[in-house]
Please model this.
Amino acid sequence: MSLGANRHLIGRPMANADFATPALLIDLDSFQANIATMADLTRRRGVDLRPHGKAHKSGRIGRMLIDAGAVGVCCATVREAEVMADAGLDGVLVTTPVVAPGMIARLVHAREKAGSLALVVDNAVEVECLAAMARPDRPIDVLVDVDMGLGRTGITTPEEAVALAERISAAPALRYRGVQAYYGHLQHVPALGDRHAKVAEQWRHLAGILDALAAAGLPAEIVSGGGTGTHHLDLAHGPFTELQPGSYLFMDKQYGAVEMAPGGSPFRTALSVAARVVSVAQPDRVIVDAGSKALSTDAGPALIASGASPDAVYQFMGDEHGAVRLAAGSARPRLGDLITFTAPHCDPTVNLFDQFHIVQDGRLVDIWPIEARGH
Amino acid sequence: MSLGANRHLIGRPMANADFATPALLIDLDSFQANIATMADLTRRRGVDLRPHGKAHKSGRIGRMLIDAGAVGVCCATVREAEVMADAGLDGVLVTTPVVAPGMIARLVHAREKAGSLALVVDNAVEVECLAAMARPDRPIDVLVDVDMGLGRTGITTPEEAVALAERISAAPALRYRGVQAYYGHLQHVPALGDRHAKVAEQWRHLAGILDALAAAGLPAEIVSGGGTGTHHLDLAHGPFTELQPGSYLFMDKQYGAVEMAPGGSPFRTALSVAARVVSVAQPDRVIVDAGSKALSTDAGPALIASGASPDAVYQFMGDEHGAVRLAAGSARPRLGDLITFTAPHCDPTVNLFDQFHIVQDGRLVDIWPIEARGH
Model:
């Protein structure tokens, strides 16, 4: 994959007049601290960590996470799984049901490169298709996907869970390993206490399913779930044998508004979008070259990270532009200046770029491709 | 560029169990009809057409548009201009000011491949930088960018326009050609009469600037502006020598809500996103594999185009998933079925994909790369 227009600037100060914008930045020190913090938190609780690759979509980052102690990487798409398998990673878990035979064939092929591959299912048809396509000498791990109130994928009753687990167990090329129980809709409940009450309700729901599986002789060896917003609760009281958070690597505006843990958030903002002031024609604002194709629009406007007063307000101004509205009396950025923004929502923002620009002490130290971006 | 996972399906029916989803589709007949319709409308009025490449980001489509009579292609980003220049196209106009010397250098380089290249400026610093970097044997055309009430880029007064035009004219490697006057914020005013009143106000503003330029001996040979939503008014009464619409190629949900012309819209919906039903576990909905990384989130939910009842309601369910909520009593799509969606907003949706899948009579007839996607 291409390293993009800034590849010749590696080793030089980031705020360079040659620097092509908009560009996605990772602050290396904060990023490494986030990796170490979650690895440490899970290790101390004896819970496995399988960080979600939909956040970063990078084989290199997947490797860094496993080197830091993760048991594998989660993937949301077939392409992500292919990228992680091509990177030779072990423990790839595809967290969304895949039903098209053509796409299942790609996963079976990826299984040949990955140390192991796990899929989730919520329908018997998927099990039959997977059983017919998987190779007994390269068995595929399968988890029953349990709906935890999100209303997206996953079975809802103990009876469905047992029936699916029995079908998986009966297939020679498949290995029944347990359940996935993800509650994405609870990750951003702002107050810790409210979030606790809501996840506890889902834990009770899951306990009924786990009990039924055990009673049927199919105990769940793996219970995979949790996320960045619930990690503190998941680790302190949750039913999970492994967590699958992704956003903690980067953090974003959305998670900045969540009470992560009693002592505050243990994670630092490590991701930003660098843009350049391309017009100063308006008196009350400057215009930057980052719009809806550089910052995801699903979580409101971006926040100023550097280069302008923190009380300046970003406003989307089309595909390629944003306005930075300046408070009266605050310093006015000049034409050509760099302004960096905290992403409103990290995952879809990463998906808009082809490279991470790795920054340390104000220097561009490396560029990493985002190979699994797209479809 | 890669043709993606569906390249082996070219020539086969689109609704194939091997078809990788989500995928971006162009209905070829509607697309070609849209190209011909706008070419014909502009030709009959004696107005040039320079369609905007930010909508399609494809060198091949740029070539098709020029073959159909366009005088060139507009671009919003340096990458788009590079892609169009690499395709050997004439008449590339970069519609947004570019200020970083490193990015201007890329445009000067692109100029060597493109038959001609035009830029817009709204600041004297840009003119100086461009004048210093352009080559006199490969002159660059320059337009003064005029703010038409959008409040984004562009000068606002006749005096600023004249001062910039004089600076451009004085530079040996630059050719002053006229003005750009784009009103993106008026493209979606729903009622034609309301839109007319608002654009007429901007036409009066622009007339003052054009008069001042002419009085200064710097008449605007090119007046570039307009868009899909205003095309009827721009052609009937507008001050433009050329139009730069982009969305008419595809159409989307947003433009579906705009009263385009007295007789209705002359353009057909040609773009859609194909997704697959990946879960039927919930009683009131099915889940498809197209979420916020396959459909832009800046214009509300997608509309059903095919594969489910038109009164079913799409709801974003995360990065990779959407729910299709079914009305009571309507037919229930099955696991694995394809459902297609009209994009909420075409430009940022196209930007999420690497390929257009070209469909005709239910068959996948070709795949075109979206080379200029990203940054």
In short: The mean pLDDT of chain B is 96. Residues 49 and 243 of chain B are 5 Å apart (CA to CA).
